[in-house]
Amino acid sequence: MESWRKLAIELFPERKGIYEAPEETVWSVIFHAHDEVIRAHQNNDLDLLQKIYKFTEWCHLQKEVEPEIWSAAYAGFYEHLVEDEATYFAIPQWVSPEVFRDILPEVEDRLDNKVKYPFKRPGSFKELLEYYNEQRGTHFSKEDVPE
What is the pTM for the complete model shown? Predict the structure, then answer.
């Protein structure tokens, strides 16, 4: 059994039957996590939030081992956190500095490119950097975003 599948079943045993199905992919688990994370923030469901962020961070850290797993977390989850107020303001609490550094290019693009991404923004890229640094004691800047 794939490592992502084992972790998904361990963290979300109520979905075991779904996650064991051969046609289930890491992408569908990530999409489900994305759907659930906003609701979990709105309901302050800390148990579910811990599970979601643990799974997605583990997936993100697989970049060198399983690029497809990393890609699912990056494209299906992390890049969308800036689109909703509940997740935008939770980024400092739930997204580690290592992951935050990795997603900075996409976060900047989504928050600053209003033509390409015409959603209502909870804040700007600059505001998110300042808020993240304040909450985490980090020193991220626009210079940390690769060209």
Answer: 0.91
Q: 93 by DSSP, 3-state: which? A: helix
3-state SS class at 27: helix
The pLDDT tens digits for 27-51 are 999 999 999 999 999 999 999 999 9
- Joined tokens for residue 84: 């909703």
Instruction: Give burial (CB, 10 Å; 0-12/13-18/19+) of 118.
Output: exposed
Token duo for residue 15? 């979905």
Spell out the domain ranges in the chain.
Answer: 1-76, 88-147
Report CA 57 to chain centroid distance, whole Å: 7
pLDDT of residue 147: 66
